[in-house]
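Q: Give me the 3D complex with iron/sulfur cluster.
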Amino acid sequence: MDMVTLTIDGIKVEAPKNATVLEAARKAGIKIPTLCFLKDVNEIGACRMCVVEVKGARSLQTSCVLPVSEGMEVITNSPAVRESRKVTLELLLSDHNLECPTCIRNLNCELQKLSEELGVQSIRYPGQKSKAQYDDFSPSIVRDTSKCVLCRRCVSTCHKVQGVGVISPNYRGFDTVIAPVFDMSLNEVPCVNCGQCILACPVGALKEKDDTHRVWETLADP
Ligand code: SF4
Ligand code: SF4
Ligand code: FES
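A: Here is the predicted complex, encoded as structure tokens.
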């Protein structure tokens, strides 16, 4: 296998020629935060959480889609890198439903974890909230786009892993929403209720339907 040598945070690292900087860093035990990245499924460089500095480059680079090259010098934790990740995260949080205590993913949420790791304790960009969709008509899956971070991990999983492809980005820019075509319910499209999109989601925007209360009601019904 053809290998290249680069330095990451001053450490000499060898990586296959076709590896990304993120892969090379992980192999060397250097942590770079990610959000939209899902190995072999969603490698689209969308969220910019994984940015790094590369010597000679004019702007910060997304390490999850950046190929390694011979002699490359990468810095993963400079003040500019940390500030960029923090701004990205605060912008995401500024349009996020922050009802964490009642969220199914509370304490098991990648957004919460990133906030803690990056030291986000307040949001500098209060602003407009996008129009959210709440869809609980499916027999097994609840969609709540007020918690969606638009990472598209569910979209790629449904399309590439399940070969179904019933969810995709609708509209553009600030109005973008991840939903079935024409904003239909998951119940109205050929969703097979496999739940793989829920597993791929880093936050509480997709969850299993909980019918426990109906069981209690039935048990209590004489
Ligand atoms: S449950 Fe399966 S088929 Fe339905 S949207 Fe999710 S991944 Fe696609
Ligand atoms: S529903 Fe979840 S996996 Fe899908 S784009 Fe939104 S945050 Fe990402
Ligand atoms: S993890 Fe690299 S751009 Fe999202």
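A quick observation: The first strand starts at residue 3 and ends at 8.
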